[in-house]
Amino acid sequence: MADTKFDVPIWHKTNLTVEEAAAYSGIGSQKLREMSDSEYCPFVLWNGAKRLIKREKLDKYLAEVYSI
User: For 40-51, how does the pLDDT look when each residue is reduced to its tens digit (9 = 90+)?
Assistant: First the structure.
C-alpha cells in the first residue's frame, strides 16, 4: 500500500494538533495546553496520550469567553 499524505487546510480539519490550533487561533501552544489540561475542557480530545483540539468547539468556546 502506497504512503499517501493529504495536505488538508487547517480550517477544514475537524481536529487540530496543539501547534495547529495555536497557529489557527493566535493563542500560544503552552496556553492551549494549560487550558486543555482540565478534565472538563470542552474542546480537547485525547487519543491515547495525544492531545487534539476540536476546532469548532474551540471557536465556540473563544466566542463565549471574555478572557483566557
Answer: 999 999 999 999
Q: Which of 4, 11, 1 is nearest to 56 (CA)?
A: 11
Question: How far is 52 from 14, CA to CA, in rounded Å?
Answer: 10
**Crossing angle of helices 18-25 and 55-64, rounded to 10°:** 40
CB 35 within 8 A of CB 67: no
Nine cell digits for residue 39:
478534565
CA atoms within 13 A on the CB side of 12: 4
Task: Give Cα separations from 17 to 1, 6, 21, 66 (angstroms).
Answer: 26, 15, 6, 24
C-alpha distances in Å from residue 15, one per residue of 1, 2, 28, 50, 60? 25, 24, 17, 12, 14
